[in-house]
Amino acid sequence: MRGNFLTRRILQRFRQLAIYSVGSLKIKLLLCCCIAFTFLLIAGRTASFSAWTQRHVSLHDFSTPRKGYTLLINTWKRYDLLKQSISHYASCAGLDSIHIVWSEPDPPSDSLREFLWHTIKSNSRANKDIELRFDINKEDSLNNRFKEIKDLKTDAIFSIDDDVIFPCTSVEFAFSVWQSAPDTMVGFVPRSHWVDKSKGNMDFYTYGGWWSVWWMGTYSMVLSKAAFFHNKYLFLYTNQMPTSIREYVAKNRNCEDIAMSFLVANTTGAPPIWVKGKIFEIGSTGISSLGGHNERRTQCVNKFVGEFGRMPLVSTSVKAVDSRNCLFW
Q: Which residue of the set 162, 196, 257, 322 is catalytic?
């Protein structure tokens, strides 16, 4: 009996050892599989990341740089201001060409042309070849500012008056903002509109100047005296905008900038983008300083609403700020 008992205990012990050994082997195999799978996963992710990086570098290397912008400058018998403006903007990095809207009865003098050519060549960065053209118009009309130019080299237009100057850093930042939204207007001078309920008519609108923008914190226009827009709007302004609007602008010698704002908003259904920038006024006061200016602009707004058949302007409170040059933003 005792021998049989010992034999059973020995056999039971061997069974336990065998089961333990098999269990340990299974655990070890499972751990090995987990470790191997982890290495494969890491290797796969590393290869994937490496391949993505290589593709990214390849796209970066072969991508073509975006074109710059055309300076479209409006002037009228203020040659000193024109020279000062061209001298400044010629040094801006993104400038590719300059078009001067010329509506004077006499063509530009040879001395003026030569001075501007020399100025551009002297001030352009890295001797960049910047095109200079005078767009000669037979009649004096504010609509000439947005007359179609068929052989423009760039998509971007930077429309500017001859009596305002912005630092090149501000211009380049505004250009980068425009590149992110090339169908809209991007500019430095915001204006607003609102429904004038005091008239007892929900379809009567009032034009608001800078102080209205400051007070309400919203705007619906950026003036073309300092704004980027796509060159396609020159075609639309000249060929597809209601003729009655261009006739109104020509007759009243005002509001071509509001007309352009209406046109862009009517096309996009989106608001413009106001860019914060330092403005330097180098000329004398213009028509905006004359009495009754806002009243005439209000008449323009309501006239254009009637011609478009609706109010296309869209209000917004968004402002683009270059955080590199701001302590608080």
A: 257
The pair of structure tokens assigned to 11 is 């056999």
Per-residue pLDDT tens over the stretch 76-106 = 999 999 999 999 999 999 999 999 999 999 9
Spatial contact of 313 and 261, defined as CB atoms under 8 Å apart: yes
Q: Which of 140, 185, 144 is nearest to 275 (CA)?
A: 185
Question: pTM for the complete prediction?
Answer: 0.78
Q: Which residues contact 283 (CB under 8 A, 6 or more apart)?
A: 78, 81, 161, 162, 163, 164
Q: How confident is the model at residue 285 (pLDDT cuts 50, 70, 90)?
A: low
8 A C-beta contact, residue 253 and residue 76: no
Nearest-angstrom CA–CA distance, 95 and 88: 11
Active site includes 96? no
Rounded distance between C-alpha atoms, residue 185 and residue 266, angstroms: 12
Paired residues of 136 in beta bridges? 102
Other beta carbons less than 10 A from residue 180's beta carbon:
10
Rounded to the nearest 10 degrees, what angle do helices 110-123 and 79-89 cross at? 20
